[in-house]
Amino acid sequence: MPHEYMTGFGNELATEALPGALPRGQNSPQHCPYGLYAEQISGTAFTAPRASNARSWLYRIRPSVQHMRRFTRVDVPEWKTAPQPIDKVLPLGPLRWSPAPIPNEAVTFVSGLRTMTTAGNADLRVGMAAHLYFVTEAMTDDYFMDADGELMILPQSGGLVIATELGELAVEPCEIAVVPRGIKFKIAPENGSSRGYVCENYGNRLELPELGPIGANGLASPRDFETPVAAYEDKEVPCRLTVKWGGSFHTTEIDHSPLDVVAWHGNYAPYKYDLRAFSPIGSVLIDHPDPSIYTVLTSPSAERGIANVDFVVFSDRWLVAEHSFRPPWYHMNCMSELMGLITGRYDAKQEGFLPGGLSLHNALLPHGPDAAAFEKATSADLRPEKLEGSIAFMLESRYPHHPTDYAATLPTLQADYIACWQHLERHFDPADRNGTGI
Fold first, then answer.
1. Are residues 260 and 308 in the same domain?
2. Is 398 contained in some domain?
3. Which of 55, 226, 289, 409 is the one with CA 20 to 30 A from 93?
4. Are residue 312 and residue 404 in the same domain, yes or no?
5. Annotated catalytic, 288?
6. Is there a domain that residue 435 lies in?
């Protein structure tokens, strides 16, 4: 059965899986249609400004209070939460990992998640964690809820079907799915297995960035975001719900599926977005602009213009700048930059940065093109060139990232990453004012 979606980011949406399941004229009538229970989930404080207030009304077979059976603390050993104790501290410097293979054993989205870095503090609702995920088995009667943060899921190999309380999302490589904080869900691989990335955002929920002088159009268009229509499981069988709360995991047995929402309306809902729909803005004359012009979504912090997390994508685009060094320049950034590659090759790295891999350039640690990329860029014939077939992304945060023990001991950690800059030659010549002797 094809998946059905509604379009528009942040809209007040309404959907029902049975005709007339949504009450008319009020949110909580004395008697809901079909004998359903009315329940509100709030993604922001009740008193948040109207423009940022997020909430949805759900009409479900059983209220969520019936999911609050006696919980048992469980261990999910490789899923870490900030702040986290670190035993194996890596030497200071830029870090890069090659792709990690998908495990041979059966792992679900929860048991197959591996935390690479944490930043900030989940209890204080600031920062994020970056994870790899591996899925080889569906969560058939297992359900999960993250109370610590919203989850941005980026498949890199193999697609996923994400069944949530508010409907289903089918997401493939080069697409993202976002499951808001507090929404219950389960995940199945579409074709046997899947591998990808997860950003667990502890801070303010992701939103579209302001466009400023760009104007009304460009970057990610609200109309390209898709939200699922209502779909419910009326399943009275033993099920297990696991909740992540305060960095710990708690599980309980319930006698029905928690995905029993028959209708809902509001603006707090899961969504998906195809990164190939991004409309990039770039230089049409000189110089390489700041990477912030490629921001898809942002989680703002309390300090205006300095993000808790920015999600940035580098996709197909034309390079036309004249007399310019076209790759990203060498720089030191007060923000931390964590990068992943979905497909293709990133233009600032000629070797070593592979699809499924990850790199970390922490705050104020210098980085930039490797030696081969520098030589290519400075000797290129600067005709219009189209970068095609590559999608890389960056998670930029005001908080420093701390690699986990798992990341520090992962066999795919590239011990020689910094060597990619060691062959940058000295070209200084006081007699060559124009620098043409490079």
1. no
2. yes
3. 289
4. yes
5. yes
6. no
**271-285 mean pLDDT:** 95
Q: Which of 3, 288, 361, 401 is catalytic?
A: 288
Count CB-CB contacts under 10 A for residue 338.
24
Of 275, 304, 338, which closes a domain?
275
CB 241 within 8 A of CB 258: yes
85 shares its domain with 181? yes
Give the Cα separation of 168 and 228 in Å (integer): 6
Q: What is the pLDDT of residue 310?
A: 97
> Who contacts 298 (Cβ-Cβ below 8 Å, separation ≥6)?
206, 207, 208, 209, 307, 309, 310, 311
Which segment of 19-28, 155-164, 425-434 scores lowest on mean pLDDT? Answer: 425-434
Same domain assignment for residues 248 and 288: no
Residues 168 and 211 in one domain: yes
Q: What is the DSSP pairing of strand 142-146 with strand 239-245?
A: parallel
Q: Are residues 18 and 83 in the same domain?
A: yes
- 131 pairs with which residues across the strands? 115, 198
Distance CA 424, CA 378 (A): 12
- Per-residue pLDDT, averaged over 329-348, amounts to 91
What pLDDT sits at residue 210?
93
User: Per the structure, how many domains does the chain have?
Assistant: 2
List, for residues 284-318, the tens digit of each pLDDT value: 999 888 889 999 999 999 999 999 999 999 999 99
Structural domain includes residue 422: no
133 found inside a domain = yes
- Based on the domain organization, do 49 and 27 belong to the same domain? yes
pLDDT score at 150: 98
On whether the CB atoms of residues 110 and 130 are closer than 8 A, the answer is: no
Model-level pTM greater than 0.90? Answer: yes
Number of Cβ atoms within 10 Å of the Cβ of 246 = 11
Shared-domain flag, residues 221 and 96: yes
Domain that residue 369 falls in: 278-416
